[in-house]
Design a protein that fits this description.
154 residues; 4-stranded antiparallel sheet; single chain; binds zinc ion; alpha+beta
Amino acid sequence: MGMDVYGIKPTSDIGKVFRRNVWGWHSLWEYIEHEYPEIACKVDSPHTNDGGSLNKKDSLLLSDKINNDFKIGKIRIYVEECQKFLDSLPDVDCYACLGFGVTRSGVFHPSKGVCRQCQGKGKARPYAYNYLPRIDDLVEFSLFLKECGGFKIL
Ligand SMILES: [Zn+2]
């Protein structure tokens, strides 16, 4: 599943659509909720594909804020802090094999059923690891915001 964010009145191709998978979108929007709650709260249900929107004026304002955050290194620090937190989490039971290290068929045919997710170790990084924010996503979203003329999440 992915998130498609469409420009309402785009002024260029960049402003037509911004797409991310759910992991990329959620972590990107969490940055905005964390840093700019006064703008984030204007978008209804930003973590779903239900048509939440932001007008042109606020999109331009958010674009400038994100762009400035990138220039002064604020985004890099945020991403590094998220990475540090995720690195501090212990491994958990593999969610694919529930910690047994084998698939269901591996119970009867151990040589054929090693869990591909954990290579048979039974442990894996926590699922939260998929939600590490990316600097490039925020920079690209800032460019989209500048030229989208307001957006709608579908
Ligand atoms: Zn496994």
